[in-house]
Amino acid sequence: MFSIVTQNRACWLLSALTGMVPMLGWHNEHTQGNLSITSGDIIVCKFTKVMRMDYMVYFNVFGWVVVPLTIMIALYREIFRVIRKQLNMRLTKSLALIVFLFALCWLPLHVMNCILFYCPECGMPKSAMYVGVFMTHINSALNPLVYAFRIQRFRATLVQIFHYFCFATIIWDE
């Protein structure tokens, strides 16, 4: 059932692998990954030692967030217009919620990165940066939940996957 590679699964796998490359310490011979444990079991994020801030701002913020978000908003605006005339509004609300959650979760970190890049003397509390990073990860968890609660077929599939993994874990533990 889960062994068939579809275009969607291949896209998700490629996205996951691409996203993990910098976190695993790409181009940084001095660290192993982006986290280290210091004395006292405090976790220190070393992501900025792996990725240069100019890359984060110009390529990542503008190339992978601002431009896609602008395109998504324009496309979804047109989709909303068509859906409103032809289909129920529930789907429209789901799409709007997905775009809103994307912006809510991703923009704070990128705004902080821009502030750090353009105004290094301004400073940024590490706790704020950690919350920003955490929010970007939360976005990945929110999308399936939004789809699950808003679309019946997706909800049934998500429950089926959940049962599959719970059953596989029970068998594995025995």
The number of distinct structural domains comes to 2
Structural classification: mainly alpha
Order of H and E elements:
HEEHHHHH
What is the number of helices? 6
The CATH superfamily of the largest domain is known as Rhodopsin 7-helix transmembrane proteins
How is this structure best described in words?
The chain is mostly helical and 174 residues long. The protein folds into 2 domains: 1-51, no CATH class; 52-173, Rhopdopsin 7-helix transmembrane proteins, CATH 1.20.1070. 76% of the residues lie in helices and 3% in strands. The protein is built from 6 helices and 2 strands. It has helices at 7-23, 47-50, 53-86, 89-118, 126-150, 152-173, and strands at residues 35-37, 43-45. Strands 1-2 form a two-stranded antiparallel ribbon. Strand 1 (35-37) and strand 2 (43-45) form a beta hairpin. Helix 3 (53-86) packs antiparallel against helix 4 (89-118), helix 4 (89-118) runs antiparallel to helix 5 and helix 5 crosses helix 6. The chain is globular. It starts with 6 loop residues before the first helix and ends with a helix. The model is unreliable at 26-38 (pLDDT under 50).
